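Researcher: We're teaching a course module on how sequence relates to structure. For the next exercise, students receive a sequence and then see the predicted structure as tokens, so they can try to spot secondary structure elements on their own. Here is the exercise chain.
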Amino acid sequence: MKILVSACLLGVPCRYDGQSKTDPRVLALRDRHELIPICPEQLGGLSTPRAPSECRGERVIDQNGQDNTKAFRRGAEYAALISRTLGAEAAVLKAKSPSCGLGRIYDGTFSGTLTEGSGVTAQALLAAGIPVYTENDLDHFPSAG
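Model: And here is the predicted structure for the students to work with:
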């Protein structure tokens, strides 16, 4: 199975703080699947490092008040295009991220508070019919492939 994966989960230092969030469970997927690393925020044109961003309704605002919605949407569009072009059958994305989070994301106050919702890329992939998981959902990930 071809799987889109948040590059930070594979050890790529592309997060807002210039770090990665390497996850051994995600790395282990490469033994059975073809992994396609993506960082939607970089695909959208944002630099690394960058100010942290959070979703506020339909907008994505960084900690300095900069509206990054266009960059987040562009990155989501590219992620969906990559998915279609390469035939990805699923995605494993970074939990809580304004791009990649699924089901629960930070609430836009930069207080560490979570709220119901999904990131811009997770929403775009779901709309394109791609099943989305986070590193916290791997117990439910299909083992086929």
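Model: If you want an answer key for the exercise: The chain has a mean pLDDT of 96. The CA atoms of residues 16 and 50 lie 5 Å apart.
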